[in-house]
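Q: Given only this backbone (83 positions), what sequence would you predict?
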């Protein structure tokens, strides 16, 4: 199945060099979890702060069990500071 992974801010450095903007389309197995994708792209857990699937927030405790579905868009942001 196909999903889209979007990484924002400093996390875009973890996408493949041939990425388009901040997103990449992936073929993944039906049982792929958010945590699997974080590991696949070697995202430091301390930088995986805000996680949305199809625009819906996913709690940190749910990221190990939440499986992806065909057409899903997974968006991940690092912690953001500012004033």
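A: Predicted residues:
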């Amino acid at each position: 199945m196909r999903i889209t992974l979007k990484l924002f801010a400093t996390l875009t450095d973890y996408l493949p060099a041939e990425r388009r903007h901040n997103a990449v389309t992936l073929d993944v197995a039906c049982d792929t979890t958010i945590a699997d994708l974080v590991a696949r792209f070697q995202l430091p857990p301390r930088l995986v702060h805000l996680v949305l699937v199809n625009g819906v927030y996913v709690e940190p405790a749910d990221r190990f069990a939440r499986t992806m579905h065909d057409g899903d868009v997974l968006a991940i942001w690092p912690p953001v500071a500012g004033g």
